[in-house]
């Protein structure tokens, strides 16, 4: 086993499914102790089971990233259980059925912003002091290609992901001198349960937007995320990294 994360404790929000699960497995394979934090407790336990079968040390914790107290508790659980926090992947997120702004329910707007943007702020809010306390580390915030591109029908999601990119840059400016590297990843459309509402026609449309001619795989996002968390990325700070099969290159 590659031990690039040996001795490191990692927290992955939304680690029960899709990209977060692939990241949790990749970090576990690299020797990290992984805390899988998710509102889907059954899914988080299943993920931990899979990590343990692969030889990793892991634990599950219930988390709703839209609730600051819940985030505080999950970070506290991590530090209480394993003694420190070095790495964090703020990945939990949702998508909602498409609607133009004029037909978007304000409650839907609020829910997407609460989870996809405020959830990343709450996570950073409680993770960063612990990472500093541990002597430094690294964070990846899961943005999206929609962190820099618009997408008709997804105003709240697009606004939240643009916010995540700005939050990432600001966090890096604030914490670089304290030994914490903070970067964002911008996946293209990735074949995960998040896309479960897309019918065949929508999938084909999404595929056609990627010059690579396919959707991405969660493992491809996990690999870039792991690089950014590793010491190999020692001068990569405050930036946004696309994993999008040239979606944004047009
Ligand atoms: N799949 C894509 O095409 C794609 C593209 C770009 C960015 N992303 C982003 O990647 C991240 C992961 O997406 P995915 O495709 O793996 O989705 P997914 O639905 O497979 O997994 C998301 C996970 O987050 C958890 N979650 C949702 N709300 C939560 C909350 N309030 N508190 C805690 N956990 C919560 C879910 O239970 C689930 O386990 C999201 O931030 C998403 O916006 C996904």
Task: Provide structural commentary.
The protein is α/β, with parallel strands linked by helices. It has a single domain, classed as 3-Layer(aba) Sandwich (Rossmann fold). Helices cover 44% and strands 16% of the residues. A seven-stranded parallel sheet has the order 3-2-1-4-5-6-7, with helices on both faces. Helix 2 links the parallel strand 2 and strand 3. The longest helix is centred in the middle third of the chain and has 28 residues. Bound molecules: nicotinamide-adenine-dinucleotide. The site of nicotinamide-adenine-dinucleotide (NAD) has 29 residues, from helix 1.
What structural keywords apply?
alpha/beta; seven-stranded parallel β-sheet; globular; binds nicotinamide-adenine-dinucleotide
Element pattern in H and E: EHEHEHEHEHEHHE
The pLDDT mean sits at: 97
CATH homologous superfamily?
Answer: NAD(P)-binding Rossmann-like Domain
**What topology, given as strand order, has the largest sheet?**
3-2-1-4-5-6-7
Radius of gyration: 17 Å
Quickly give the structural class: alpha/beta
Overall shape? globular
Number of strands: 7
Question: How many domains comprise the coordinates?
Answer: 1
Residue windows where pLDDT falls under 50 for at least 5 positions: none
Beta-strand share of residues: 15-25%
List of distinct ligands in this structure: nicotinamide-adenine-dinucleotide
Percent of residues in helices:
40-55%
* Continuous helix count: 7
């Amino acid at each position: 086993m590659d031990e690039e994360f040996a001795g490191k404790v990692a927290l992955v929000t939304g680690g029960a499914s899709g990209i977060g699960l692939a990241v949790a497995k990749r970090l576990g394979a690299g020797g990290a102790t992984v805390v899988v934090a998710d509102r889907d407790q059954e899914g988080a336990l299943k993920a931990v089971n899979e990590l343990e079968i692969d030889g990793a040390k892991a634990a599950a914790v219930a988390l709703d990233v839209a609730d600051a107290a819940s985030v505080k508790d999950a970070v506290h659980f991590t530090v209480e259980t394993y003694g420190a926090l070095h790495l964090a992947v703020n990945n939990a997120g949702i998508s909602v059925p498409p609607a133009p702004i004029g037909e978007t329910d304000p409650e839907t707007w609020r829910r997407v912003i609460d989870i996809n943007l405020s959830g990343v702020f709450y996570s950073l809010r409680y993770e960063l002091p612990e990472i500093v306390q541990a002597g430094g580390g690294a964070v990846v915030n899961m943005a999206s290609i929609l962190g820099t591109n618009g997408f008709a029908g997804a105003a709240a999601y697009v606004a939240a992901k643009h916010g995540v990119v700005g939050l990432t840059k600001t966090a890096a400016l604030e914490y670089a001198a304290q030994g914490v590297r903070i970067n964002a990843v911008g996946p293209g459309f990735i074949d995960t349960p998040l896309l479960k509402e897309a019918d065949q026609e929508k999938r084909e449309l999404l595929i056609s937007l990627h010059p690579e001619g396919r959707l991405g795989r969660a493992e491809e996002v996990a690999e870039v995320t792991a690089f950014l968390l590793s010491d190999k990325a020692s001068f990569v700070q405050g930036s946004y990294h696309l994993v999008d099969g040239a979606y944004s290159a047009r």
